[in-house]
Amino acid sequence: xxxxxMMDKTRGQMPVSRWEHTLRxxxxxxxxxRREGEDPARAEIAAILHDYCKFWPEDELRRRIRVHNLPxxxxxYNPELWHGPVAAxxxxxxxxxxxxxxxxxxxxxxxxxxxxxxxxxIIWLSDVIEPGRRHPGVDEVRKLAEHDLDRxxxxxxxxxxxxxxxxxxxxxxLTLLARNAMLDEVQAKAPREESV
Length: 196
Ligand code: DGI
Ligand code: FE
Ligand code: FE
Prior knowledge:
By secondary structure, the chain is mostly helical. It is built from eleven helices and no strands. The radius of gyration is 16 Å and the shape is globular. The model has no long low-confidence stretch (mean pLDDT 96). One fe (iii) ion is lined by residues 21, 25, 50-51, 127.
């Protein structure tokens, strides 16, 4: 499937401001992929499609979670968590995307998950540090992202969980597992640095 067609269809799913976010995620992810030795073309496709279902009505997302046999526990958590898993199913059907790594990068772009691939981390992180984002701590994460992908993801996951706790919102268990797994990955790489 041709990228131009995917871009046109994606633009048609969302308001202009969300499309502009999508393009900034694309630019951030492509640059990060080049730096990290990941395939920029696959990062581009995942970034363009990651928020495909962000503006779909909640009822439709709920229906799709059932139709596609997605994890039912999603329904007990914030509806913000629904658009990624649904988008992975929709773009597989609509554009014939069969690359599981691209599909997983879309599927887990909000929740994260333990054992994320390099492409999944790139999309997850690009979504939170694209230049339009202004939340507390984002500049520190942007700096880390320039030289240490894993530490940047860990810090950004800590910030996301802190954001949820500050609002007394539920935290989806996969988000906690993802953060703990990133901590293990970072510590396994530099055990001594971590213990001082
Ligand atoms: O779709 P975007 O706005 O570009 O970003 P996203 O898909 O990462 O959605 C993030 C929102 O989801 C963010 O405002 C926090 C919210 N959220 C609610 N519950 C959870 C959650 N995010 C995570 N990671 N885990 C949760 O349990
Ligand atoms: Fe999203
Ligand atoms: Fe996004």
